[in-house]
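Batch queue: ligand-bound targets. Current item pairs a single chain with 2-oxoglutaric acid. No template structures supplied; prediction is de novo from sequence plus SMILES. Inputs echoed for audit trail.
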Amino acid sequence: MESVIGNFNENGFAILPGVLEPGTLEPVKHECETLVAELAVRRYAEGKLTDTYPNASFETRLIRIYEDYPDENPTIFRSELHREGFFDVFAHPALLELASIILGPEIRLYPNYSVRPKLPENKRTEVLWHQDAGYTSKEADVLRMMNVWTPLVPVNVENGCMEFIPGSHKWGVVPHEKDEYYLRIHDDYIKPVEADAVRIEMMPGDVVIFSNLLFHRGLPNRASHIRWSLDWRYQDARQPTLRTTQGHLLHSRITPDTVVKNATVWAQLEFS
Ligand SMILES: O=C(O)CCC(=O)C(=O)O
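Prediction returned. C-alpha coordinates below.
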Protein backbone atom coordinates (compact mmCIF):
# COMPACT_ATOMS: atom_id res chain seq x y z
CA MET A 1 0.00 0.00 0.00
CA GLU A 2 2.82 2.40 0.92
CA SER A 3 4.60 1.89 -2.41
CA VAL A 4 1.32 2.45 -4.28
CA ILE A 5 0.80 5.77 -2.54
CA GLY A 6 4.50 6.62 -2.91
CA ASN A 7 4.34 6.00 -6.68
CA PHE A 8 1.09 7.93 -7.00
CA ASN A 9 2.61 10.94 -5.24
CA GLU A 10 6.05 10.76 -6.87
CA ASN A 11 5.31 9.62 -10.45
CA GLY A 12 1.65 10.62 -10.67
CA PHE A 13 0.46 7.04 -11.13
CA ALA A 14 0.60 3.50 -9.74
CA ILE A 15 -0.37 0.15 -11.27
CA LEU A 16 -2.25 -2.30 -9.04
CA PRO A 17 -2.10 -5.77 -10.62
CA GLY A 18 -5.08 -8.10 -10.26
CA VAL A 19 -7.20 -5.95 -7.93
CA LEU A 20 -10.52 -6.65 -9.65
CA GLU A 21 -11.82 -10.18 -9.27
CA PRO A 22 -13.50 -12.03 -12.19
CA GLY A 23 -16.74 -11.74 -10.17
CA THR A 24 -16.50 -7.94 -10.35
CA LEU A 25 -15.44 -7.76 -14.00
CA GLU A 26 -17.83 -10.29 -15.52
CA PRO A 27 -20.97 -8.23 -14.71
CA VAL A 28 -19.28 -5.16 -16.24
CA LYS A 29 -18.52 -7.04 -19.43
CA HIS A 30 -22.03 -8.47 -19.45
CA GLU A 31 -23.55 -4.96 -19.21
CA CYS A 32 -21.32 -3.81 -22.08
CA GLU A 33 -22.46 -6.78 -24.17
CA THR A 34 -26.06 -5.84 -23.40
CA LEU A 35 -25.40 -2.24 -24.47
CA VAL A 36 -23.97 -3.48 -27.76
CA ALA A 37 -26.89 -5.86 -28.29
CA GLU A 38 -29.33 -2.99 -27.74
CA LEU A 39 -27.47 -0.85 -30.27
CA ALA A 40 -27.59 -3.69 -32.78
CA VAL A 41 -31.35 -4.02 -32.41
CA ARG A 42 -31.81 -0.25 -32.76
CA ARG A 43 -29.60 -0.03 -35.87
CA TYR A 44 -31.44 -2.96 -37.40
CA ALA A 45 -34.80 -1.24 -36.73
CA GLU A 46 -33.44 1.95 -38.32
CA GLY A 47 -32.57 -0.01 -41.46
CA LYS A 48 -28.83 0.51 -41.03
CA LEU A 49 -28.09 -3.20 -40.56
CA THR A 50 -29.24 -6.34 -42.27
CA ASP A 51 -27.75 -8.59 -39.57
CA THR A 52 -27.31 -7.89 -35.83
CA TYR A 53 -24.26 -10.20 -35.61
CA PRO A 54 -25.44 -12.01 -32.45
CA ASN A 55 -22.55 -14.50 -32.62
CA ALA A 56 -19.76 -11.95 -33.00
CA SER A 57 -17.38 -11.70 -30.03
CA PHE A 58 -17.24 -8.91 -27.44
CA GLU A 59 -14.01 -7.77 -29.13
CA THR A 60 -15.56 -7.46 -32.62
CA ARG A 61 -19.36 -7.07 -32.57
CA LEU A 62 -19.38 -3.26 -32.42
CA ILE A 63 -16.99 -3.16 -35.40
CA ARG A 64 -19.41 -5.26 -37.44
CA ILE A 65 -22.39 -3.16 -36.41
CA TYR A 66 -20.78 0.08 -37.59
CA GLU A 67 -18.61 -1.11 -40.48
CA ASP A 68 -20.81 0.62 -43.05
CA TYR A 69 -21.06 3.81 -40.96
CA PRO A 70 -17.56 4.47 -39.55
CA ASP A 71 -18.48 8.00 -38.41
CA GLU A 72 -21.39 6.84 -36.28
CA ASN A 73 -19.85 4.35 -33.83
CA PRO A 74 -20.05 5.34 -30.16
CA THR A 75 -16.67 6.31 -28.68
CA ILE A 76 -17.80 6.59 -25.07
CA PHE A 77 -20.70 5.42 -22.88
CA ARG A 78 -21.62 7.52 -19.85
CA SER A 79 -25.35 7.94 -19.21
CA GLU A 80 -25.68 4.25 -20.16
CA LEU A 81 -23.64 3.14 -17.12
CA HIS A 82 -26.47 3.31 -14.59
CA ARG A 83 -26.98 -0.44 -14.75
CA GLU A 84 -26.50 -2.81 -11.84
CA GLY A 85 -23.39 -4.56 -13.18
CA PHE A 86 -21.27 -1.40 -13.03
CA PHE A 87 -21.81 -0.64 -9.34
CA ASP A 88 -19.40 -3.14 -7.78
CA VAL A 89 -16.47 -1.85 -9.78
CA PHE A 90 -17.13 1.83 -8.98
CA ALA A 91 -17.73 1.01 -5.29
CA HIS A 92 -14.98 -1.61 -5.04
CA PRO A 93 -13.89 -1.79 -1.36
CA ALA A 94 -10.14 -1.92 -2.09
CA LEU A 95 -10.35 1.13 -4.35
CA LEU A 96 -12.55 3.08 -1.94
CA GLU A 97 -10.11 2.26 0.85
CA LEU A 98 -7.21 3.55 -1.22
CA ALA A 99 -9.22 6.64 -2.18
CA SER A 100 -10.03 7.32 1.47
CA ILE A 101 -6.30 7.22 2.33
CA ILE A 102 -5.45 9.58 -0.54
CA LEU A 103 -8.52 11.86 -0.46
CA GLY A 104 -10.10 11.44 2.98
CA PRO A 105 -13.39 9.84 4.01
CA GLU A 106 -15.79 11.92 1.86
CA ILE A 107 -15.62 10.34 -1.58
CA ARG A 108 -17.67 11.11 -4.63
CA LEU A 109 -17.66 9.39 -7.96
CA TYR A 110 -16.78 12.34 -10.19
CA PRO A 111 -19.26 12.98 -13.02
CA ASN A 112 -17.32 11.58 -15.95
CA TYR A 113 -17.36 7.80 -15.44
CA SER A 114 -16.91 6.20 -18.85
CA VAL A 115 -16.71 3.00 -20.84
CA ARG A 116 -14.61 3.39 -23.99
CA PRO A 117 -14.90 0.99 -26.88
CA LYS A 118 -11.79 2.00 -28.84
CA LEU A 119 -12.47 0.81 -32.36
CA PRO A 120 -9.47 0.12 -34.63
CA GLU A 121 -8.08 2.79 -36.95
CA ASN A 122 -10.66 5.34 -35.90
CA LYS A 123 -9.48 8.90 -35.21
CA ARG A 124 -12.55 9.49 -33.07
CA THR A 125 -11.26 7.01 -30.48
CA GLU A 126 -7.68 8.30 -30.30
CA VAL A 127 -7.38 10.37 -27.13
CA LEU A 128 -4.54 12.92 -27.52
CA TRP A 129 -2.02 14.06 -24.89
CA HIS A 130 -3.96 15.84 -22.16
CA GLN A 131 -4.42 16.35 -18.46
CA ASP A 132 -7.90 15.57 -17.19
CA ALA A 133 -7.80 18.91 -15.39
CA GLY A 134 -7.31 20.51 -18.84
CA TYR A 135 -10.86 19.43 -19.73
CA THR A 136 -12.30 20.96 -16.54
CA SER A 137 -10.73 24.40 -16.02
CA LYS A 138 -7.45 26.21 -15.41
CA GLU A 139 -8.34 26.14 -11.71
CA ALA A 140 -8.78 22.35 -11.69
CA ASP A 141 -5.36 21.79 -10.09
CA VAL A 142 -7.13 22.36 -6.76
CA LEU A 143 -9.29 19.29 -7.28
CA ARG A 144 -8.26 16.39 -5.07
CA MET A 145 -8.83 13.40 -7.28
CA MET A 146 -7.76 9.81 -7.78
CA ASN A 147 -8.30 8.69 -11.39
CA VAL A 148 -8.86 5.01 -12.10
CA TRP A 149 -8.57 3.15 -15.41
CA THR A 150 -9.02 -0.56 -16.05
CA PRO A 151 -9.09 -2.68 -19.23
CA LEU A 152 -11.80 -5.20 -20.14
CA VAL A 153 -9.46 -6.89 -22.66
CA PRO A 154 -5.65 -7.19 -22.49
CA VAL A 155 -4.27 -3.78 -23.54
CA ASN A 156 -0.94 -3.15 -25.22
CA VAL A 157 0.78 -0.81 -27.64
CA GLU A 158 -0.85 -2.48 -30.61
CA ASN A 159 -4.45 -2.08 -29.50
CA GLY A 160 -4.08 1.37 -27.95
CA CYS A 161 -2.97 1.26 -24.33
CA MET A 162 -2.40 4.53 -22.51
CA GLU A 163 0.93 6.35 -22.21
CA PHE A 164 1.95 8.52 -19.26
CA ILE A 165 4.69 11.09 -18.68
CA PRO A 166 5.95 10.24 -15.16
CA GLY A 167 6.18 13.24 -12.84
CA SER A 168 4.20 15.57 -15.13
CA HIS A 169 1.49 15.92 -12.46
CA LYS A 170 3.81 18.33 -10.66
CA TRP A 171 3.71 20.95 -13.42
CA GLY A 172 0.26 22.48 -12.83
CA VAL A 173 -2.45 22.80 -15.49
CA VAL A 174 -0.73 23.55 -18.82
CA PRO A 175 -2.36 25.09 -21.93
CA HIS A 176 -4.47 22.79 -24.10
CA GLU A 177 -5.63 23.35 -27.67
CA LYS A 178 -8.70 22.06 -29.44
CA ASP A 179 -7.84 19.40 -32.01
CA GLU A 180 -10.38 17.73 -34.28
CA TYR A 181 -12.01 15.49 -31.65
CA TYR A 182 -10.11 16.02 -28.40
CA LEU A 183 -8.08 18.63 -26.55
CA ARG A 184 -4.31 18.37 -26.92
CA ILE A 185 -1.51 19.70 -24.70
CA HIS A 186 0.25 22.59 -26.45
CA ASP A 187 3.40 21.42 -28.30
CA ASP A 188 5.63 23.69 -26.19
CA TYR A 189 4.74 21.57 -23.16
CA ILE A 190 4.55 18.05 -24.60
CA LYS A 191 7.33 17.96 -27.22
CA PRO A 192 10.23 18.40 -24.75
CA VAL A 193 9.04 15.45 -22.61
CA GLU A 194 7.33 13.13 -25.09
CA ALA A 195 10.35 10.79 -25.24
CA ASP A 196 9.87 10.05 -21.51
CA ALA A 197 6.46 8.44 -22.13
CA VAL A 198 5.84 5.06 -20.52
CA ARG A 199 3.41 2.50 -21.93
CA ILE A 200 0.74 1.27 -19.57
CA GLU A 201 0.17 -2.29 -20.80
CA MET A 202 -2.27 -4.17 -18.57
CA MET A 203 -4.47 -7.24 -18.21
CA PRO A 204 -8.14 -7.39 -17.18
CA GLY A 205 -8.24 -7.24 -13.38
CA ASP A 206 -5.33 -4.76 -13.25
CA VAL A 207 -6.05 -1.17 -12.35
CA VAL A 208 -3.99 1.98 -12.77
CA ILE A 209 -4.58 4.99 -10.57
CA PHE A 210 -3.30 8.37 -11.71
CA SER A 211 -3.39 12.09 -10.97
CA ASN A 212 -5.81 14.36 -12.81
CA LEU A 213 -2.77 16.52 -13.64
CA LEU A 214 -0.74 13.70 -15.25
CA PHE A 215 0.07 14.13 -18.97
CA HIS A 216 -1.46 11.07 -20.66
CA ARG A 217 -2.95 9.81 -23.90
CA GLY A 218 -4.50 6.71 -25.46
CA LEU A 219 -2.50 5.33 -28.38
CA PRO A 220 -4.27 4.52 -31.68
CA ASN A 221 -5.76 1.06 -31.91
CA ARG A 222 -3.90 -0.75 -34.73
CA ALA A 223 -5.27 -4.20 -33.89
CA SER A 224 -8.31 -5.78 -35.52
CA HIS A 225 -10.40 -5.89 -32.34
CA ILE A 226 -11.93 -3.38 -29.93
CA ARG A 227 -9.94 -2.14 -26.95
CA TRP A 228 -12.62 -1.96 -24.26
CA SER A 229 -11.86 -0.07 -21.04
CA LEU A 230 -13.51 1.61 -18.11
CA ASP A 231 -12.35 4.82 -16.41
CA TRP A 232 -13.63 6.84 -13.49
CA ARG A 233 -12.44 9.23 -10.82
CA TYR A 234 -12.90 9.59 -7.08
CA GLN A 235 -12.92 13.12 -5.70
CA ASP A 236 -12.85 14.60 -2.22
CA ALA A 237 -16.58 15.30 -1.94
CA ARG A 238 -16.01 18.34 0.28
CA GLN A 239 -14.88 20.15 -2.86
CA PRO A 240 -17.02 21.42 -5.77
CA THR A 241 -16.79 19.42 -8.99
CA LEU A 242 -16.21 22.60 -11.07
CA ARG A 243 -18.73 21.09 -13.50
CA THR A 244 -22.47 21.51 -13.85
CA THR A 245 -22.91 17.91 -12.72
CA GLN A 246 -22.30 16.67 -9.16
CA GLY A 247 -21.49 12.96 -9.44
CA HIS A 248 -22.56 10.51 -6.72
CA LEU A 249 -21.43 10.06 -3.13
CA LEU A 250 -19.88 6.61 -2.54
CA HIS A 251 -18.38 6.94 0.96
CA SER A 252 -19.06 9.37 3.77
CA ARG A 253 -18.41 9.66 7.46
CA ILE A 254 -20.40 12.90 7.76
CA THR A 255 -23.57 11.78 5.95
CA PRO A 256 -23.37 7.98 5.60
CA ASP A 257 -27.11 7.79 4.85
CA THR A 258 -26.66 9.71 1.60
CA VAL A 259 -24.17 7.37 -0.12
CA VAL A 260 -25.29 5.17 -3.01
CA LYS A 261 -25.91 1.99 -1.06
CA ASN A 262 -26.12 -0.75 -3.63
CA ALA A 263 -26.46 -1.74 -7.27
CA THR A 264 -30.25 -1.42 -7.25
CA VAL A 265 -30.05 2.20 -6.11
CA TRP A 266 -27.24 2.89 -8.58
CA ALA A 267 -29.34 1.61 -11.46
CA GLN A 268 -32.18 3.97 -10.50
CA LEU A 269 -29.92 7.03 -10.58
CA GLU A 270 -28.83 9.01 -13.63
CA PHE A 271 -25.55 10.31 -14.98
CA SER A 272 -25.25 13.60 -13.18
O1 LIG B 1 -8.78 5.26 -22.65
C1 LIG B 1 -8.02 6.02 -23.25
O2 LIG B 1 -7.46 5.73 -24.30
C2 LIG B 1 -7.78 7.39 -22.69
C3 LIG B 1 -8.48 7.56 -21.39
C4 LIG B 1 -8.20 8.84 -20.72
O3 LIG B 1 -7.60 9.71 -21.24
C5 LIG B 1 -8.67 9.01 -19.34
O4 LIG B 1 -9.25 8.08 -18.75
O5 LIG B 1 -8.46 10.12 -18.81
